[in-house]
Amino acid sequence: MITLIRSWLIGVLCASMVVAVAEHLMPPGAVRKIGKITAGLVLLLAIVQPFLNVDAADLTQGFSLEEYRAQMSEYDSTLEEENLELMKDIIAEQVAAYIVDKAAGMGISCTAEVTLTEDAQGNALPYSVIVAGALTPAQRNALTGEITAELAIPSQRQYYEDGDIS
Prior knowledge:
The chain is of the alpha+beta class. The chain folds into two domains: about 1-55; about 85-160, GMP Synthetase, Chain A, domain 3 (2-Layer Sandwich). It has five helices and three strands; from the N terminus they run ααααββαβ. It has a three-stranded mixed beta sheet with strand order 1-2-3, covered by helices on one side. The model has no long low-confidence stretch (mean pLDDT about 85).
């Protein structure tokens, strides 16, 4: 950029010197008037020369509104997908915490891991659960009934393990 300005200034200075020398060498009268007009045009041309050579593509290089919109749209969709995944993780954790709280209310000590599915509208719904802990058959039946009634997870998708979930 500095070299461009430097060369432009040198061009304007050279044109000014040529115009000044030409004006001193011109005879007075009509020739001098025509010479001054021509010299002014030459000087004007030297000043605006860089602008005449500018290509519109060079000015917009690196900046395209369509390209910018496409990048923003891509960024938007990526952000939306990440937000949905984070929301699913939060929902799964909240549902698991709800199950553990329900179990604690029944006198059961356990941990839970919930997997989700999506409905037609894209809403995250509990699909299955793995409950880990030392549960008696009666406690399993009671907790299975609560999970089925409260979260609509059928007993076929409720799994029980002894010990903690790793």
